[in-house]
Design brief:
Residues 1-109 form the DUF8158 domain. The chain is mainly alpha-helical. The chain has five helices and no strands. The chain has helices at residues 11-14, 22-34, 43-56, 58-69, 86-108.
Length: 109
C-alpha cells in the first residue's frame, strides 16, 4: 500500500472522539522533538522530527500533518507551497502515522 492509500484514524477525519486529534499528534511530535527518547526503538523518529522542526518551525510541520492525516495528501506532496523538501514531508508523515497509532493504542488500553 502506498502512502496515497492510507486512511488514518484521526478524530478530524473519523469524527470518533476516541481517536487522537491532529493537535494530539502535533503535541506529541513537538514534545518528542524537544526531548528525544534514548534507547527506544523509535528514538530515530524523535531525532528526525527534532531536525525537521528546527529546520522549518512548528507551523509548517503542523500543516503537513493536517494535510497527510486529514486531507489525504500524499507524503511527498503535502509540503507543496511550504518551502519544504519533499523528503521532509515523507519524514513528517512517517512520524505522524507512527505517533497517531501510538496515541490511539493508549486510548484503547
Amino acid at each position: 500500500m502506498s502512502d496515497n492509500d492510507a486512511l488514518y484514524d484521526v478524530r478530524e477525519r473519523t469524527k470518533n472522539p476516541e481517536h487522537a486529534s491532529v493537535d494530539d499528534v502535533v503535541e506529541l511530535i513537538l514534545e518528542r522533538a524537544q526531548h528525544p527518547r534514548t534507547e527506544h526503538r523509535d528514538a530515530h523518529l524523535d531525532e528526525m522530527m527534532a531536525t525537521v522542526v528546527d529546520r522549518y518551525g512548528t507551523g509548517p510541520v503542523r500543516t503537513v500533518i493536517q494535510r497527510i492525516l486529514v486531507d489525504h495528501h500524499p507524503f511527498r506532496t503535502a509540503t507543496h507551497d511550504l518551502e519544504m523538501r519533499n523528503v521532509d514531508g515523507v519524514r513528517i508523515g512517517t512520524a505522524a502515522g507512527q505517533f497517531l497509532t501510538e496515541l490511539n493504542a493508549q486510548h484503547d488500553d
